[in-house]
Write a structure and sequence with these properties.
Blueprint: H1 7-14, H2 18-25, H3 33-45, H4 52-59, E1 64-69, H5 75-90, E2 94-99, H6 104-116, E3 121-124, H7 134-141, E4 146-149, E5 159-163, H8 165-178, E6 184-188, H9 194-209, E7 219-221, H10 225-230, H11 232-238, E8 244-247, H12 250-262, E9 272-277, E10 290-293, H13 296-311, E11 322-325, E12 328-330
Parallel strand pairs: 1-2, 1-3, 3-4, 4-5, 5-11, 6-7, 6-8, 8-9, 9-10
Antiparallel strand pairs: 10-12
Helix pairs in contact: 1-2, 5-13, 8-9
């Protein structure tokens, strides 16, 4: 492997001092334009690239932000990435993206990898399987600036960007109630996920506000396409007792629509279905999915703003903030 050209190499080749090369490449006013041009042209011809790691060690700043998300191939998270990347690029930061793949061990490994690469701060959405928060507590205790979004960690005090999931769950359920539904099945997330608990609690609150009895059997832990298939017989056994389904996310809602239609049920005539997320697939499925809109791009940008506020003011005490986005309902044909 060819050794990388260094400032010392350039100085030796051109017969000038190392400090002259360094200042010329930084456009220092003490260096003449002729010398700057000579050094820059030579550096360009030799494909000189500065040692970013060495610079970051000297400056104690890498101008790099780390991001840990559960999935990259997911509309919500990909839209969050887009919002984060747009603003980090505009502000002169690089972005390193890690995928936990809904696995706590990988999440912990990702976090340590980002810290080892000396990122200035980290933006995180927790994995579904995370029940032990020691890796986040350690990073917090070590002074690593962190912003959590969507799936937050209550065990550490940080800046947060969230959707009002309680209101989203309440809004979805109330919409079904206003359509005349009284027996609504909720396909819920794992109870350790705060967003899942909040959407479930919003569902329960809408029932309470409308004097509809809550029944345990109408809440099932089922938040993936695979779980819909696994629980197909159980869901079908409840169908004669229900008139609507509120799914915790769009992929689950779409999977249940497809499963019900394969078994001869009409959507929405026999059963109304509503999801949560509003990804592109919501408009492609037949019938088009009524769902709660998540503002992933805007949430991503807000997470960066909160992190940069802290990075740009390291010596200023700033109270931790939680930015809450208000959900809206996208009415289509499934409900």
């Amino acid at each position: 492997m060819q050794n990388k050209l260094t400032i010392k190499d350039i100085a030796k080749k051109l017969g000038v001092s190392v400090s002259t090369v360094s200042r010329a490449l930084k456009d220092h006013p003490d260096i003449s334009e002729k010398t700057k041009a000579l050094i820059r042209n030579f550096a360009n011809e030799m494909n000189y690239r500065p040692n970013v790691l060495a610079l970051s060690l000297r400056k104690q700043k890498s101008n790099t932000i780390g991001l840990i998300i559960p999935e990259i191939v997911h509309h919500f998270f990909s839209s969050v990435i887009s919002g984060i990347e747009d603003l980090t690029y505009r502000e002169g930061y690089n972005l390193i993206i890690c995928q936990s793949n809904e696995n706590q061990f990988r999440e912990s490994t990702n976090l340590q990898t980002l810290i080892d690469h000396r990122v200035d701060g980290i933006i995180v959405s927790m994995s579904k399987s995370t029940t032990n928060f020691n890796h986040f507590k350690k990073a917090y205790d070590d002074g690593i600036p962190m912003v959590f979004f969507d799936r937050i960690c209550d065990a550490v005090e940080t800046d947060r960007v969230v959707m009002d999931d309680f209101e989203g769950g309440r809004l979805a359920t109330e919409y079904l109630i206003n359509k005349g539904c009284r027996n609504i099945l909720h396909l819920a997330a794992a109870p350790n996920l705060l967003i899942g608990r909040n959407r479930r609690d919003g569902y329960i609150e809408a029932l309470r506000q409308n004097n509809i009895p809550f029944r345990d059997k109408f809440i099932l832990k089922c938040d993936t396409r695979e779980e819909v298939l696994t629980m197909q017989n159980h869901i079908l056994s409840l169908v004669p007792q229900i008139d609507a389904i509120f799914a915790v996310n769009d992929s689950t809602a779409i999977a249940v629509i497809q499963m019900l239609r394969r078994n001869g049920f009409r959507i929405p005539e026999d059963i109304r279905v509503i999801g949560f997320g509003d990804g592109p697939i919501a408009t492609i499925v037949e019938p088009a999915l009524t769902t709660i809109e998540q503002k992933g791009y805007d949430m991503g940008r807000e997470a960066v703003r909160l992190l940069l506020q802290r990075l740009n003011n390291p010596n200023v005490p700033i109270d931790y903030q939680t930015r809450v986005f208000t959900p809206t309902i996208k009415v289509r044909d499934s409900a």
